[in-house]
């Protein structure tokens, strides 16, 4: 594809829009003679006249009338693309790694408030169950569940997770005997430890004997386990905080007051980086969100 010089096309578009070489020269910051020269080069390249030159004005020829709207729209598209790139370059960006279930059930419902308070920060969520190395620069911060410590990182404790039996009201679970006759739903934890919530631990802590903790259905994602509980497929030992909407809507019930304590959630970052202000803004917002929680979770 062979195109005339961009300077000649730009000079023609400005002259056609203003119907004046002088006004075009003022816009581009050159002399009217330079505009005339560029347009003559363009006419020679195309082999047609683009303007009828009269004593006090220039008028587009038929060829000029055909060319002008195409160039006008093209330069508008160029300008829009350049502006978009500049905006992206100057936008304040922040990438936060977060567990998928925590993002879906806790963080996402609250994010409109962050966006309202910080419209200039472009937030990107990196959802993954795997821990991301913050020193790699792939993400700027992370929300992680665990005991800690986190050497080399700034760790801001959010809240300690708790776990309790949750089920559909249609199962009618009201007592330990009811629970012993129900199907139990299980979660497969990636890195189980001494505080991993299991039915064995919950039954032992609450003196419930005869609970058959084997069998049932196991899930790798707690959101799927919660959906199974809503469907009446069994009782899940899950986080009331992550199922708050379902509990409030009556889709789930919590038939026992006894909870198991889990690990805390932490907001983690390196304390360094060019976007430290954005990280600090998100950390402050997280603190405010946690402070408004009705309970420890």
UniProtKB/TrEMBL annotation:
Pfam entry (one): LysR_substrate
Ranges where the HTH lysR-type domain occurs: 4-61
Superkingdom in the source lineage: Bacteria
Keywords: DNA-binding, Transcription, Transcription regulation
PROSITE patterns according to UniProt: HTH_LYSR (PS50931)
Entry-linked SUPFAM superfamilies: Periplasmic binding protein-like II (SSF53850), Winged helix' DNA-binding domain (SSF46785)
PANTHER family given in the database record: HTH-TYPE TRANSCRIPTIONAL REGULATOR, HTH-TYPE TRANSCRIPTIONAL REGULATOR TRPI
Family: Belongs to the LysR transcriptional regulatory family.
Protein name as annotated: LysR family transcriptional regulator
Species name: Thalassospira povalilytica
């Amino acid at each position: 594809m062979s195109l005339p010089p961009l300077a000649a096309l730009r000079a023609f578009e400005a002259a056609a829009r203003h119907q004046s070489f002088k006004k075009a020269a003022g816009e581009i910051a050159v002399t009217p003679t330079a505009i005339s020269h560029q347009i003559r080069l363009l006419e020679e390249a195309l082999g047609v006249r683009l303007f009828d030159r009269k004593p006090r004005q220039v008028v587009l020829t038929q060829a000029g009338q055909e060319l002008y709207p195409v160039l006008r729209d093209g330069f508008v598209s160029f300008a829009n693309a350049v502006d978009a790139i500049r905006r992206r370059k100057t936008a304040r960006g922040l990438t936060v790694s977060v567990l998928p279930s925590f993002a879906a059930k806790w963080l996402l419902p609250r994010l409109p408030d962050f966006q309202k308070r910080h419209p200039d920060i472009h937030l990107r969520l990196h959802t993954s169950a795997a821990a991301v190395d913050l020193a790699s620069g792939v993400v700027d911060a992370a929300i992680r569940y665990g005991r800690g410590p986190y050497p080399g990182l700034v760790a801001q404790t959010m809240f300690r997770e708790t776990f309790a039996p949750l089920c559909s009201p249609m199962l009618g679970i009201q007592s330990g005997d009811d629970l012993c006759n129900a199907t139990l739903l299980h979660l497969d934890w990636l890195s189980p430890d001494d505080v991993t919530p299991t039915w064995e631990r919950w039954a032992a802590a609450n003196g419930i004997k005869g609970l058959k903790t084997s069998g049932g259905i196991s899930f790798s994602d707690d959101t799927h386990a919660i959906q199974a509980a809503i469907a009446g497929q069994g009782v899940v030992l899950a986080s009331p905080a992550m199922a708050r909407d379902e509990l409030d809507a009556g889709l789930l019930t919590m038939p026992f007051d006894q909870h198991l304590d889990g690990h805390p959630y932490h907001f983690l970052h390196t304390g360094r980086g060019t976007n430290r202000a954005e990280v600090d803004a998100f950390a402050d917002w997280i603190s405010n969100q946690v402070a408004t929680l009705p309970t420890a979770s």
